Amino acid sequence: MIDTGDRRIRLEVIENVAVLILARAEKLNALDYEMVLALERAAHLIEAMRDVRVAIITGEGDKSFCAGGDIEAWSSWSPDDFGMAWVRHGNRAFDALARLRQPLIAALNGHTLGGGLELAATADFRIAEEHVKLGSPETSLGIIPGWSGSQRTVRRFGSQLVRRMALLGEVFTVEEGRALGLVDKVVVKGLALNAAQEMARTLMARGTIATQATKMLINAAEGEELERPLEALAGAVAAASADLKEGISAFREKRRPKF
Which segments of the chain belong to CATH 3.90.226.10? Predict the structure, then answer.
């Protein structure tokens, strides 16, 4: 087990696959502030692991993948603290997950609502068990879907579908979700993690660098991020060039480079 700073955010690596587990089943895996911070730390740990080729995120138990933000954790915060800490750090954590160089699979073991849906949207693929329901009910509480629920979810699922969930409060069954593009695969109860591990093996049978570069390009096309993919890909080209070898040799030999 790898230390994330919070025992409720468990991280382990199994055969080149990082498995991230929300371990708060008694609260439907709802996130409090410390868990949000630990999620961001976990994402950075995964990103830095050279031997990790795929990541999976799932929840503990069978009732909820993630019930979103724990109302008791944020309801007493001042508006300033809510916006500048709760929402801001939530976005940082979710951005870090969405922008992992490794493909990320969400194994939806239970209901995926509100911030849970926003968390699932950070993944490249979503595998859901047959009893799962999906939705974005935040406006019924008088709050907005603030962890990219009006941004990344629109890019991933389409604006009209997000309107139906966030404005009308529609909640979809998993079969409806598959037809609408919210999930990629449906499995029987209890098998989401197994199916995610099988998908991970499929991904690892493909070229590592090509897979990671393609993910970055797709993210850029979606508007997820642009600057980092451009610099990373351009940097890789430069690093493979004869110019770099000559530049380093000239530096070490204290002479003018001959490009």
Answer: 9-204
Q: Which fold is adopted by the domain 9-204?
A: 2-enoyl-CoA Hydratase; Chain A, domain 1 (3.90.226)
Query: Is 118 an active-site residue?
Result: yes
Residue 98, classed as helix, strand or coil, is helix
The mean pLDDT of 239-251, rounded to a whole number, is 80
Phi, psi dihedral angles at 101 (to 5 degrees): -70, -30
* Neighbour tally for 71: CB within 10 Å: 13
Give the model's confidence band at 259: pLDDT under 50 very low, under 70 low, under 90 confident, else very high: confident
Contact 30, 8 (CB under 8 A): no
Query: Is 198 a catalytic site residue?
Result: no
Per-residue burial over 136-163, b = 16 or more CB atoms within 10 Å of its CB, e = otherwise: bbbeeeebebbbbbbbbbbbbbeeebbe
Q: Name the catalytic one among 40, 60, 129, 138.
A: 138
Question: Is the model's pLDDT at 198 over the cut of 90?
Answer: yes
Catalytic-labelled residue, pool 118, 130, 170, 222: 118
pLDDT value, residue 231: 81
